[in-house]
Design brief:
With 110 residues, the protein is of the alpha+beta class. Helix content is 70%, strand content 15%. It has a domain at 54-110. It is built from 4 helices and 2 strands; from the N terminus they run αααββα. Strand 1 and strand 2 (76-83) form a beta hairpin. The two termini are 48 Å apart.
């Protein structure tokens, strides 16, 4: 076989690659990828909702978090659990969401 004929056959095989790739991906695999993508979208939406201050989030989180405080009065120590204020919880939620968005944006810039 001469060089020209060999080159033409090679080019024809390379040009056929996209069709071969498309046909080699089964419908089941496409459905599987689609299902996985839907699950990731639902998880993303749930995380965003969980980190967005709202009446529902306030009802879920207010009173849920505490910190220990030791009070000393007239030589006596008294340990108390003090609830974290809702405003502080909102600040924490906003900081977490902001960091996640910043990390996503910085990954797409580079």
């Amino acid at each position: 076989m001469d060089g020209k004929k060999k080159l033409e056959e090679l080019v024809a095989r390379v040009e056929a690659w996209p069709d071969q790739v498309i046909h080699s991906v089964s419908n089941d695999r496409i459905r599987s990828i689609s299902d996985a993508f839907k699950v990731m979208e639902m998880e993303r939406d749930a995380l965003r909702e969980a980190l967005t201050p709202s009446a529902a989030a306030k009802a879920a989180y207010e009173g849920e978090f505490h910190m220990g405080v030791t009070l000393r009065v007239r030589g006596q120590e008294d340990y108390r659990r003090v609830p974290i204020p809702w405003t502080t919880i909102k600040d924490i939620m906003s900081a977490i969401l902001g960091r996640a968005i910043h990390q996503k944006d910085s990954r797409h810039e580079g």
